[in-house]
Specification:
318 residues, 28% helix, 25% strand, single chain, alpha+beta
Length: 318
C-alpha cells in the first residue's frame, strides 16, 4: 500500500520536485515553499507536497471507502448515475468519459460543492454547485468524503496561495479570484487489465490546481523533451499539478503539463481534488507576465462558461 514505501532523501523523486508546504499555512508572505512552487510550475508543472496536514489514517479511510463504493453492485451504482442528475454528481460507468474523442476505461464518483437548490450559485447555474447524489447503502461514505473535501479545500487554498506568492501578486487579488472557487472531487477506479486501454488519455487539466491521492502507480507525466515518466508512489504525499487556466493566466510562464493514466496489472484507486477560480472571473494574461517582447498570447475568457463547456465535452451522453 501507499504508506509503506521509504521516503526519498533528495528534493526530487523521479525528476518531480518534492515541496514542504508547511510554510504556506502561515501568513501571506513569500517563503521557501512559494519559491519552490514557482520553480516547479516553470519547469515541469507537477510536484509532490509533504507536511500537508492531512492525517495518514484519514487518507487510508478515504481509500478504503472509495474501494468499498466501487465494489457495490452495478445496479446500486446506476441508481446514482450522473445521467439521472443535472449537477454532474454521482456515478460514472466504464467508458462514460472520453479524452480527445477516445473512450476512457475507468469508473468514477463525482462530487461537487454541496449546496442547496436555493443557493445563489445554484440559482445562477454556476458549474459544480448543487446537491450531491450519495450511495445511501453505505453508512460512512458521505461523512468520509465531506471531511476529505474540507481538508483538501484547505490544502488547495494553501497551494493556491503559494502560486500567487510565487508571482509576486497581492493577497487581495487572490481573494478576488478565489473567493468562490469552482471545486470538484473525484474518486476513480482503474481495474487491472492486460488490454491496450487508456485509463485516462493524455490531457491537460483545465483548472487552477489539481491534487491527487493514489494507492499505487499509474499516472504518467510528459516531460519537455516529449518523453513519459511515471509518477512514483511516495508515502504520505499528494501529487499536485497546475492546469491550463494557469498557463493562459501567466502567458506561458507557468506550463500546464500533459499527463495520462495507463491501465496496469493491478487495480488502482485515486482521489482527485480540483480547484479553480470563481465562476464569474474572466481569465486573461497577467500584466506582470507580459511585455513588449512577450505580448499577451491568449484572449480573455469567462472561467465559469469555460468549465461548463469542458465538462460537457468530457461526458459520454448516449
Amino acid at each position: 500500500m501507499f504508506y509503506s514505501i521509504s521516503m526519498p532523501d533528495s528534493k526530487f523523486y523521479n525528476d518531480i520536485p518534492i515541496i514542504d508546504v508547511l510554510p504556506l499555512s502561515e501568513g501571506y508572505r513569500e517563503n521557501s515553499a512559494s519559491k519552490e512552487i514557482g520553480n516547479a510550475c516553470r519547469d515541469i508543472g507537477f510536484f509532490y507536497v509533504i507536511n500537508h496536514g492531512i492525517p495518514i489514517d484519514h487518507q487510508i479511510t478515504v481509500l478504503r471507502d472509495s474501494s468499498d463504493f466501487f465494489k457495490s453492485s452495478l445496479e446500486q451504482k446506476n441508481l446514482i448515475s450522473t445521467k439521472n442528475h443535472s449537477f454532474y454528481s454521482g456515478y460514472v460507468p466504464f467508458h462514460g468519459e472520453k479524452t480527445k474523442g477516445k473512450l476512457d476505461y475507468h469508473e468514477a464518483f463525482d462530487m461537487i460543492k454541496e449546496s442547496p437548490l436555493n443557493h445563489l450559485g445554484v440559482v445562477a447555474r454556476h458549474p459544480a454547485r448543487g446537491p450531491n447524489q450519495w450511495p445511501y447503502w453505505m453508512k460512512t461514505f458521505k461523512g468520509t468524503m465531506l471531511k476529505n473535501w474540507n481538508l483538501m479545500e484547505q490544502l488547495g487554498n494553501n497551494i493556491t496561495k503559494g502560486i500567487f506568492l510565487s508571482l509576486g501578486l497581492e493577497e487581495q487579488l487572490m481573494k478576488d479570484y478565489m473567493g468562490d472557487p469552482i471545486s470538484m472531487q473525484r474518486i476513480l477506479y482503474y481495474p487491472k487489465s492486460f488490454k491496450e486501454e487508456q485509463g485516462i488519455g493524455a490531457h491537460r487539466d483545465y483548472g487552477f490546481v489539481t491534487m491527487v491521492m493514489q494507492d499505487r502507480e499509474g499516472l504518467e507525466v510528459k516531460t519537455r523533451d516529449d518523453s513519459w515518466i511515471k509518477v512514483k508512489q511516495m508515502p504520505n504525499s499528494f501529487i499536485v499539478n497546475i492546469g491550463w487556466m494557469v498557463q493562459t493566466w501567466t502567458n506561458d510562464l507557468y506550463l500546464a503539463t500533459e499527463h495520462r493514466v495507463l491501465i496496469q496489472e493491478n487495480d488502482r484507486i485515486s482521489v482527485v481534488f480540483f480547484i479553480g477560480p470563481s465562476p464569474y472571473i474572466n481569465i486573461s494574461p497577467l500584466e506582470s507576465c507580459c511585455s513588449q517582447e512577450n505580448p499577451p498570447k491568449y484572449k480573455s475568457y469567462n472561467y465559469g462558461d469555460y468549465v461548463k463547456r469542458k465538462m460537457k465535452e468530457s461526458y459520454v451522453n448516449d
